[in-house]
Amino acid sequence: MLAFLDRDKSVAPPGYSRWFIPPAALAVHLSIGQVYAFSVFKTPLVERFDTTLTAIGVVFSISIVMLGLSAAFGGKWVERNGPRKAMFVSGLFWGTGFLVGALGVATGQLWLLYLGYGFLGGIGLGIGYISPVSTLIKWFPDRPGMATGMAIMGFGGGALIASPLSAALLERFGDTPADAIVPAFLILGAVYLTAMMLGAMTVKVPPPGWRPDGWEPPADSAGAAPAAEPASEGVSVEKAFRTRQFWLLWIVLFCNVTAGIGILEQAAPMVQDFFGGVGPAEAAGYVGFLSLCNMIGRFVWSSTSDLLGRKRTYIGYLGIGGLLYLLIAVAGTNSVVFFVAVTGVILSFYGGGFATIPAYLKDLFGSFNVGAIHGRLLTAWSCAGIAGPLIVNVIADQQLAAGRSGADLYTFSLYLMVGVMAVGFAANALVRPLPKAEPNPEAEPATTDPSRERV
Length: 455
Known about the structure:
- This protein has helices at 21-32, 42-49, 53-107, 110-130, 133-139, 144-172, 181-202, 237-241, 244-265, 267-274, 280-308, 310-331, 336-365, 370-377, 379-401, 411-429.
- With 455 residues, the protein is mostly helical.
- The protein has 16 helices and no strands.
- The relative contact order is 0.15.
């Protein structure tokens, strides 16, 4: 039965519609996107373990770090074995993470929660995040930004489903939320495992040499990206890792994520500190709004990059984003509507940056190893997931110790984020096409038609 998971068993037959692939990818990304709703469990877990918010917050940090590491080290395995086996493995790790986490909660062993939801679940996150990326790019070479945006949108929107579902489960089982954590974890694990297995069973890869009807690779990609490459060409992950372009894009992603996640992690207390009349319910609504912007931005801006080009799109993310941070620092307290609108745009850029980067990598390095290259680049997310919240929280604590309050807790952080975005803007400006690549002997042949020229 496991042979069904092999890459050669998942090749699409003639006439197969590529539009079956995005739903399979969404089944995985909507499931693993639950990690953005982990905060729903924070207070009940603090009560259950009689510990601090920081101790429970470590669970989230472990999962994000493992996401980046497993994507980096598992990327080439995913490329070699195909999306079906990768989605299957991701589902096993993600579901097992909930199971082991539930065991830790039931027995009062916090280290089991770290091991389950954090370590094992984080591996599932990383493998699941990159598993559909290169497949979607191969199915949609004419619109790679839109294709990756459709899937990665699910990761941003997973919290919109998981938050109310988790809250309902915590209310339904047990006299208190702390008593309901174990059944909630078990139910969520079963639901997500089922959804991810359905995605794994339905995903397929295109046959060698497949192209959309009537589509030919353009002579030059939009923006500053190099010419599109046929599938027989491209750069291996080892070679890409040693290029200047890879590390420039690492800096670009790190800066965009650092700035965005700093707001996302501190969103509820920040809006309450900026505007004293905002209560917990309104703050929760604000967090939901930011999640919606994050989700929509992943699809809208990545699709726009197919028209503008990846480099020009990142000029918008980092250049306009930096100006918006400056506006919040200078005039953010003038109007709650202004504050919400501006931060919503920033979070849409944050999400768009995640969804656009795979297509940017494909433009630069070709499609041969793009999933593995993307996996290694996601270490920037792991680092940014630590740096962004650390900048905001440490500076806020220092301002509190100095007797300041309200928006003053965040002003210096916002100015720092302007500088972070400027660094990313400069790195993006330095990205140049690779020299003309030689054919890659490891890749599949793109076509048997000798009349087609390399580009």
